[in-house]
Amino acid sequence: MQQTFTDFSALEILKDKRPLLVCDGAFDSFGIDFPGEVTRFSDFSPNPIYEDIKAGVKILRKYKCDYIVAVGGGSSIDTAKGIKYYNHTDIPVMAVPTTAGTGSEATHFAALYKNGEKYSVADDRLLPDCVILQPELLKSLPVYQKKCTMLDALCQAIESWWSKKAVSESKAYSQKAVRLIIDNMDDYLKNEAGSNKNMLTASNLAGKAINITTTTAPHAMCYKLTTMYGLPHGHAAALCLPKVWRYMGGFDDIAKALGKKKSGEAISFFEQMLRRLEILPPRNISDDDLEILTNSVNIQRLKNNPVRLDKDTIRELYRRIPEVQ
User: Fold this and answer.
1) The whole model's pTM is what?
2) Coil, helix or strand for 25?
3) How does DSSP classify residue 125?
4) Buried b (16+ CB within 10 A) or exposed e, 234-266
5) How do beta strands 117-122 and 130-132 pair?
6) Among 42, 249, 310, 317, which residue's CB has the most CB atoms within a 10 Å radius?
């Protein structure tokens, strides 16, 4: 059973431990004090690669660490979970998210890249044992990063809602997450304390939803956009989602959570929101790029999508990404 805390009292768990701290360079600005010494590992990429994970495993073993603490965004948390996975031991993990978006602290899988391709590792034991949700950590985030991570959470919640694997529990998480994001978006981007807390909660709920269902076509399509055009993950996912939804149609219940009556209105609202947030598409998608993008999508990952998408459809959806509706 995962324990969730809203302050740093959970750090007392580490009092008699030898923790491996997985964090990026932003950690030093947070002022987090541990009850003892930690071994720090920061040598990993924003999109963690397999070699990063193996390097982390070596550090874990060298210093005989018996606990892993991840402080950061999805990259830090996924790296920590990857280290646990490839160390082949049931070492406990504590996750302290410093962004509101990935929901990685609430899932039992981790993303990594190997030979330029995105992979997911999944194991029930990868769900962190302990989570600290501290909204104060969001204050220093750049506005663009807040936008992208927020949109990642919104896409996760919507995709989980329409997923073939959706159940009443996951839909309840999704609905709450969507409403919290829409209701708090503007104040969150202004760094209002209460909205930071609500957005962190929304991200956690979206993570709980995809932990049950996993994601669908927009996420399957967004990974190569990220690597080809240097777009943050949430930015790329948000570009894909309205194109997929417009092709599928339906899901008026999701539209209502977005404050609209019908799906068409909700899709237009979503696209207008992206323009308002200046989340813009790449304008240089050539025919060669279209082929690379289309061939990058793992058809197996699309099985969770409620409407079947073949390669020709995926190519056309990519083609529409630069279009303004």
Assistant:
1) 0.95
2) helix
3) G
4) bbbbbbbbbbbbbebeebeebbbbbebeebeeb
5) unpaired
6) 317
